[in-house]
Structures are given as structure tokens and as C-alpha cells.
Specification:
Elements: H1 2-8, H2 14-23, E1 26-31, E2 39-43, E3 49-54, H3 59-79, H4 88-98, H5 112-118, H6 130-137, E4 146-147, E5 156-158, E6 164-171, E7 174-179, E8 185-188, E9 193-196
Length: 198
């Protein structure tokens, strides 16, 4: 298990993460990329705890995602299954579990201030924290995708599912975009990755 973890998370976090996975009796599955989520926790019918994490994540995002899912497990075990999935109990648990990793031995110095700020009040997804998402993206392999906020107004773009949209104005934090086939309006986070068509 340690050798597998070494492929996916920072070297200086491997021992602690391994101990946490064993202590929590986690069945960890590393899976092919799912576009809609980075990771998932579920309690299996036989009582085992299963956590899945996308193999495609860079090592820093993988670590944050894994601890995010372990926090669900620990919070449910401690507070009961009726807490809100990303409520205050989960946030506190996530903060406590993540604290030992927020140091320069695990994360690059330029990422640390962004991560420290995020963990003052962690969100349901690291992707909804625009600054953290962009900072973590710097460690992904290069690709041909663009962020919505980079596109000029009126640009036409395609999503992973093939749907085509036209970029509209920003409303508070998100962009209104029109799906060209249906005319329906959708809201997009500024850091959503899309394929620019024109």
C-alpha cells in the first residue's frame, strides 16, 4: 500500500497517510478519472469503508481529496450519519486531519498560503475555491483546455460532455452561458475548464 501511495501523494506525507488509512480501516480504490468528482466515500453493506480517488489528480490535489474523503468517514463515525455532508462537523474534522500536512515538507512554499487560507473554512470542493483551484492547477500536466474567465465575452466553448455554450456576462461570482442547442442558461464557475471553439 505504501508503494502505491508513493505514486500519488507527496513523499513526506506517505507514512502519515498510510497510518490514517490503516487506522480508519479504509479500502482505498484509485480509479479512472470521473469528470463530476475527484473522490468519493461510502460505507459498504458489509461495514467496510470505501474511498475512491481519481488517478489523474496531481499529487497535491490527490492528497487533499483523500483527506477530504477520510474526513467524511471520521465525521460520520464520530457524529452520526445524519450530519450534513459538508457541515460544521465535517469542516472541523477536515481541518484537524489536514493540519499535519500543511507544511513546507509536503506542499511547495508558493502553495502553502493558499492552502492555509482555504482551510480556515474548507468548502465542499476545492474546485469551488477559485484561488486554490488555480494554484493546484499549476501542478497538472499541460492540456489544451481554457478557463471560462480567460475567454472573451461571446466565446463559444465545448464541455467534456459535448454540449456547446456561448459565454455571457458575469453574475456576482459565476458566468451566465447559453447552451446553443436548447437556449437554456447555465451558470459556470470562473475556473471551469472548457474547450474553446471560437
Amino acid at each position: 500500500m505504501k508503494e502505491i501511495l508513493r505514486k500519488y501523494i507527496p513523499e513526506r506525507s506517505v507514512d502519515k497517510v498510510f497510518d490514517l488509512v490503516i487506522k480508519c480501516n479504509v479500502h482505498l480504490k484509485i480509479v479512472n478519472e470521473r469528470v463530476t468528482r475527484h473522490g468519493d466515500y461510502r460505507k459498504m453493506p458489509d461495514g467496510r469503508h470505501q474511498i475512491t480517488v481519481n488517478a489523474s489528480l496531481n499529487k497535491y490535489r490527490f492528497l487533499i481529496t483523500l483527506i477530504h474523503e477520510v474526513a467524511h468517514l471520521v465525521a460520520f463515525e464520530k457524529y452520526g450519519r445524519y450530519i450534513k455532508p459538508h457541515g460544521i462537523e465535517w469542516k472541523r474534522t477536515f481541518q484537524q486531519l489536514m493540519l499535519p500536512y500543511i507544511n513546507p515538507e509536503v506542499f511547495p512554499a508558493r502553495l502553502l498560503p493558499v492552502i492555509a487560507h482555504h482551510f480556515k473554512n474548507p468548502r465542499a470542493s476545492s474546485d469551488t475555491d477559485e484561488k486554490l483551484s488555480l494554484a493546484l492547477k499549476q501542478y497538472d500536466p499541460a492540456n489544451d483546455k481554457n478557463y471560462i474567465f480567460e475567454l472573451p465575452l461571446g466565446s463559444v466553448f465545448r464541455l467534456y460532455n459535448g454540449k456547446v455554450f456561448k459565454k455571457g456576462n458575469k453574475k456576482v461570482k459565476r458566468y451566465e452561458c447559453v447552451e446553443l442547442n436548447t437556449g437554456r442558461i447555465y451558470l459556470f464557475n470562473p475556473n471551469a475548464e472548457v474547450e474553446l471553439l471560437n
